What does this fold into?
Amino acid sequence: MEMEGGESGGKRRFGVLLCAEDSDYVRKKHGGYFGVFVRMLAEEGERWDVYRVARGEFPEEDELGLYDGFVITGSCNDAHGNDPWIHHLITLITKLNSINKKILGICFGHQILGRALGGKVTRSPTGWDIGVRTITLSSSSSLAFSSLKLPSKLSIIECHRDEIRELPAKAEVIAWSEKTGIEMFKYGDNIMGIQGHPEYTRDILLHLIDRLIQRNYIMEAFAVETKLKAALWEPDIEAWQRLCVSFLKGRL
It folds into this structure.
């Protein structure tokens, strides 16, 4: 487990449940995906730990109470898959929810939260969504987030081919797009999922497009078009940062 900032000593403490393997590029340029999330979410006087759950590295059950919240990251794996670590993560989510811990799920993290709470995740019937997309916040979420003074539409980087098709009972859709019906959801006051990537910068998106071409996940012509479109749009990074920090730290 890696840490930022030594012993907690009464500091607020957060855990990143890392579901992806770092590429060399992201490791060198951003300090890995853990570094990307710490840069977006961490504030002075906090302790941030990383658990590489895709490698089977999980927090101990008696440590869970030490944390103020957890972030579940994106992944190359399918949230509807049955790898042992995915089942272990579902069990952990259930435990964290039972003790009312804050959980923020991003992309795969959003989908695995939906599955763990009783929803359904599948391949998207409309295929990959890669690039910068505008999503619409529901009127109820605009009310819930009113202190943040967010616009009703926000642009975000997307890179996924799965989606939540059915929400768990008690969950509320709080944002959607033309392509994806469940772009964001809330479950009670302690869980929120975001299908897009508020933490990504444009260079990470372009790097991922190249990796998807190399792995034959997407066609080169599609990739070229996606890169051109991405160059024209700017994701609302600052608004997403405020929203994610405020949710995770109970300021909404």
Notes: The longest strand covers residues 129-137. Residues 22 and 28 are 10 Å apart (CA to CA). Residues 84-98 form the longest helix (15 residues). The helical segments are 24-30, 32-41, 84-98, 108-116, 139-144, 202-214, 220-232, 237-248.
